[in-house]
Amino acid sequence: MYSYNYNSINLKIELFMNGQFTAIIKKDGDWWIGWIEEVKGVNAQESTKEELIQSLQEALRDILELNREEARREAADNYEEVLITP
After folding, report:
1. Which terminus of the chain has a lower count of CB atoms within 10 Å, N or C?
2. Is the pTM above the cut of 0.90?
3. In angstroms, what CA-CA distances link 17 with 13, 28, 60, 84, 85?
4. Residues 20, 5: Cα–Cα separation, whole Å
5. 36 vs 8: CA distance, rounded Å
6. Is residue 2's pLDDT more than 90?
7. Sign, CA torsion 4/8/9/12
């Protein structure tokens, strides 16, 4: 059975709705590694914490834009975009 911290989940939804995401980062040997927990595939590895955070920001922007482009391409034409909040 899974246990959930609903306060944590609500905070994450609020951050996501405000355009903020959660980065998991850690030092691994000589490298800093990290990923964005809300968006699969956004990860990076850098030699400094600052570089890692910058790389994660760039990767997040890139993947969100690619996802938007793909969704619009798949919709082809005659579609409507509607903002949805969780």
Report:
1. N
2. no
3. 6, 31, 15, 9, 7
4. 19
5. 16
6. no
7. negative
* Tokens encoding 80: 């409507």
Region 57-85: what's the mean pLDDT? Answer: 94
Q: Which of 50, 26, 48, 51 is nearest to 37 (CA)?
A: 26
Mean pLDDT across 9-28:
76
Radius of gyration of the chain (CA): 16
Q: What is the DSSP letter of 30?
A: T
> Which residues are CB-contacts of 51 (< 8 A; sequence separation ≥ 6)?
32
Q: Which residues contact 64 (CB under 8 A, 6 or more apart)?
A: 39
Classify the C-alpha dihedral 67-15-38-32 as positive or negative: positive
CB 15 within 8 A of CB 21: yes
